[in-house]
Amino acid sequence: MAVAFDEMNIPGGDLRPAYQELARWLKETPPEALEYRRQEAELLFRRIGITFAVYGDSESTERLIPFDVIPRIMSGKEWGVLEKGLKQRVKALNMFLRDVYHGRDILRAGIVPEDLIFQNPVFRPEMNGQQVPHDVYVHIAGIDIVRIDANDFIVLEDNARTPSGVSYMLENREIMMRLFPDLFARHRVAPVERYPDELLSALRSVAPLSASGEPTVALLTPGVYNSAYYEHSFLADKLGIELVEGRDLIVKNNEVFMRTTEGLKRVDVIYRRVDDDFLDPLTFRPDSALGVPGLMSAYAAGNITLANAVGTGIADDKAIYSYMPDIVKFYLGEEPVLKNVQTWRCREPKDLAYVLDHLNELVVKEVHGSGGYGMLIGPAATKATIEAFREKLKREPEGFIAQPTLALSTCPTCTASGLAPRHVDLRPFVLTGSKTTTIVPGGLTRVALKEGSLVVNSSQGGGTKDTWILDE
Amino acid sequence: MLSRTAENLYWLARYVERAEYLARTIDATLRVTALPAAYIGKTNEWDSALLTAGVAASFYQTYEEANEHNVVDYLSFSVDNPSSIRNCIEAARLNSRSVRTALTSEMWDTINSAWIELQAVWNKGTSTREDLAKFLRFVQETSLRFDGSAYRTMLRNDAYWFSRLGLHLERADNTARILDVKYHVLLPEEEHVGGPLDFYQWSSILRSVSALTAYHWVYRETLKPWLVADLLILNGTLPRSLASCYDNLVRNLDQIGVAYGRQGPAQRHARGIRNRLEHSNMNDIFQHGVHEFIQEFITDNSRLGEIITKQYLI
Question: Cβ B101–A258 below 8 Å, yes or no?
C-alpha cells in the first residue's frame, strides 16, 4: 500500500498553502485549549441533541458522532475541479436513470450488461415508462470522494437514494464558528449555510404540474427511532416544512394530503427519507407501517414528486459503479473529471480469479451493502476471515466487487496523544432542481479516528470534521 | 399544523405540568409528615398523595404499604408507573423529539438537558431526604424553565395555543384532584375544623399549589376551608384556580378558532364550564356538595380533553 497523501504537510517539511494559517494558529494554541474546546463541542452536540441511533445497541439508543475540532482545508482551486466533476457525474446519473426506466439506449449499446439492471433487487419495474416530474431522479446526491495524491480525487461511492450527513456539515460549521471565531477571522472560508435554501428551491422547482400556486413540500421520515432522525427534523426545521410520518399522510383520488389541525392539506413534493421498500404497502412491502397506502398511484398519476425518485438505487449500486466512467462518456460525450477506483467485478470470471488470488491486499464489498457493513479489508483481516470470505465469494460472486486498498489522504486530527494524521473522506451534496444543479462549497468530512484505520463510517466509530473551502 | 404535531405539543405540556405537580405533592406531603403526630392526626398522608395523583390502585398492585419510601419511589422514579416523574420527563422528551420543528431551541434544550440530568444524576433514585429535596427542586425548575422559555420564545400561533391547552387542562385536573382528596379526607372530621390539625392540612394543600402566600394576600384571614376552596375554585387571580385555568382554556381555544376561521364543540364546551364557574359562589357549591361539584368538574374537564382531541388532534 502506498504512503497516504498528507493534506497538510509536503514531504520534506513544508506546509501546503491552504494549511499555513492553521499551522501558525496551532503553534500558538496550547494543547489544553484545544482539549477544552473539544469538550465544549461535545457538550454542545449533546445538548442540541445532534445524535444518531445505533441499531441493535441496547445500552443507549442515541450516540454522538465524535467531532474533531481541527478543520479539513481545501483550496478554492481544488474545489473548482471537484465541483465540475460532481456536476458532471450527477448529470450523467440522472440521464442514466431516465434511460434505464425508458428507452434503455445504454443497454442496447452494450455498455452496461442487461442482467445487472433487470436482476438487481433495487431495480423497480414499477418505474418502467413512468414519467417523473422534470425528468429529475436524483435531487439530492451524496458523492463519497477520497483523495489519494496532490492531483487526484477519486469517487468511492455514489449515494443516490437517501444520502445523509448534511446536517453534520451544517452543524459542524456552526459549532466551529462558535468555538473558534479567531480562527475564522484569519481565513476566508466559503459559507455553507445557504444549503437549506438551495434544497428548498430545488424541491419547489420540481413540483408536479398539477400543484397549484406555491407548492407544498414535506419531509417524510420513518420516525424518531430512525438512525438519521435528528437530520430529518433538523432539515425540516431549516426548510420550514412539515416533518411528516406515514401516518400523517393520506391518499385520496390519487392526491396526497397531510392531516392537519385544519383538516386535510395537499402535499406536492415529498423529500422522502424512507427507503423504496417501505414507501407504499400496496406496492412494496405489505407489512410496512412506515409508508402511505396509495402513494405510488398518486405518483403514477403525476400528482406528487418524490425526491429522490423511486428506483434510484440502481444508480448507486456498487456493481453499476464500475461502469460510471463509461456512463459519463455515453451520455455526455465527455471524459469524466473524477476518476473511479479501479474495481474488479467478481461476476466476471477473470476478475474473480484475480480477486481470489489477492484477497489479502484488496477491499471486497457487497454490491448492495452500505454503511461499512459486510466488507472485507484484506490487509487488516485475519486468515480465518479471509478464508470465510473466500467461500462467500465463490458461492455468490455476483454479489461482490473488489477494490485496491486505497491510501486515503490524512488530515491532522486531535487524538489522545496529541495531533496526529488520520484518514479522511469527503461527502459533498449535489442538488438537482428542474433547471440548475448546485453544490455548496464543502461537504461532510469523515475521519477514521483509530490509528491506521480506513473505516470512516459513523456506524463503525468514525468521526466528522468541518470542511473548509478557502475563498481565494 | 400537523395534527400529530399539535397532539405532541399538547401532551408535552401536560407531562411537564404533571411532573411538576407530582413534585409539589411529594414536597407538601413531606412537610406534613414531618410534623408531630398530634398535628396531623391519624390520616396517612402518603395514601392521600397516591389518591391525588390518581395512582392508588396501581400502587397497591406492587406494594403492600404506603410509606414514604414506597410512595416517593413510585411517584418519582418507578418505571412501572406510567405517570411517575421519570416517565413524564421521558415522555416529554420523546414528544419533544418528534416535534422538534415546532419547539424553540430553548424549550428543546430545557427538556433535553433535564432528560440528560435525570439519567446522569437521578438514575438510581434518591437515598437521603436532602437528595430528594434536590430532586424535587430540579423537577420544579425544569417545569419553570420550560414554561418560561415557551412563554418567552414561542411564536403566538397554534403551536403555542395547543401547548397552553395541554398545560391548563392538566393544571385544572391537578388542582381539582387535590381539593377533592383533601376534602374527602377532611370533611368527615368537621368538628375539628379550625383546629391545629386542619391548619397544617390546609396549608399543605395551599403549598402544593404554591398558593399559601397568595391566600394571605387575598383574604387576610386565618386558614378556613371554604376560603381555601374559594381561592382554588373561583378566584380568577390565582393562576392555578379552576376559574383561571378556564379563562385561559377559553381564550386559547378562541385564538385557535379565530386563526382557523371556525369554532367547534371544544370552544362551546369550554365556554360552558367557564360560565358555570363564573356564576357559582361558595355557598351554592357547599349546598350542592364540594365533592360532587369537583367530581363533575373533573368529568367535564376530561371531556374537554376528548373533544379537543377529536376536533383537532386526530
Answer: no
